Amino acid sequence: MHLRTATPDDVPSLYALWDRAFDAPLMVPVYETDDGRLDRTHVAVDPLHGGVVGSVYWAPREAGGPHGDTLRAGGVANVATAPEARGRGLVRALLSRAVEQMGRDGADVALLFTGTPDVYRSSGFETFGVPLLRGAPRPADDLDPGQDDLDDDGLPTDAAPSDRVGDTPVRVRTDRLPGIPWPTWSVALGWEQLAVLHDAFDRVADGPRPLATRRTAGHWEQRIPLWYSGAEVFTARAADGQVMGYLVLEPEPDVLKVRELGVDPTAGRARDVVDALARTTLHRAHLHGPATVEVRLPAHALTDRFAAAVLDAPVVATDTTGMLRPVRAPADVVAHLRDAAATRVAFHWPGDYL
């Protein structure tokens, strides 16, 4: 078996391998947003037939460290082995090559998300758990038909009516519904407007939120529309159209998932914005009809307020899909990150998956 980094000639069999291994229509589009992807895609090639039978890909990320610092992380993804090549230790060998390359690139830690953690334990990865809340949606107040919002394209939001702060309304606008192609970022909704709120919210007392990816312009422009392609996006706006907060919801058959919340915590009206977005969540939950709403958000007084407004008798669960291992950093860095994740101080957003 030949182990090496991928070449352009490998791409057809590489994509065929992923098609066999995963039911993940976003895998290739997300992968192709990375211009340097082939040099960081480690493959096992069958010497007889020349096809790719194993793969491990990684991408560099800047992420918050445990002490207000910034770490360089190697994000592992697209790990696959053809059925006929299993049992030969290919994943472990390819991961070893990938981690060695990360070290040369200056990575402090390696990060991945998986539903099969046992595959990675022998390569030094440890799971970390992030608490989340699940519960029935609280009853939604009757809509005032005189206050239903429309987005700029005339799509009915089916969202909550505007909340008002004094004489000035906070208007919740629908910017995207599932099944409608993601609009090009524009003046009406520029990624920069959301990025400012995200960056303000994604902080802890001493610096960047641990584990959270430092999003680049390319990330916002390309990857966010892909990862949230099945989601609903709402913005809370002042009367002049200024975006004061945003919300990403993903409806699934039995659950409505809160994927992302963004607001400037230092803004004087932050609580009113969160209340408006919570009310929108309730109206969407009752519109879709799932029995459960899942709130997976980082620790903050505003996220606690949001969850309390949305969930009736919530039950705590834990997301254990994340795994970490040290690369150049000492082991205690990973231990601190795992401990911080257990209290939701460390957090990784679904829009930053690898």
TrEMBL record:
Pfam families, per this entry? Acetyltransf_9
| Record lineage | Bacteria, Bacillati, Actinomycetota, Actinomycetes, Micrococcales
Q: Where is this region: Disordered?
A: 136-172
| Gene Ontology molecular function terms on file | aminoglycoside N-acetyltransferase activity
- Give the matching PANTHER family: N-ACETYLTRANSFERASE EIS
Positions of the N-acetyltransferase domain = 1-144
Query: Which PROSITE patterns does the protein's record reference?
Result: GNAT (PS51186)
Bias (Acidic residues) ranges: 142-155
- What's the protein called, per UniProt? N-acetyltransferase domain-containing protein
Q: Tell me which stretches of the chain form a coiled coil.
A: none
The record's Gene Ontology biological-process terms are:
aminoglycoside antibiotic catabolic process
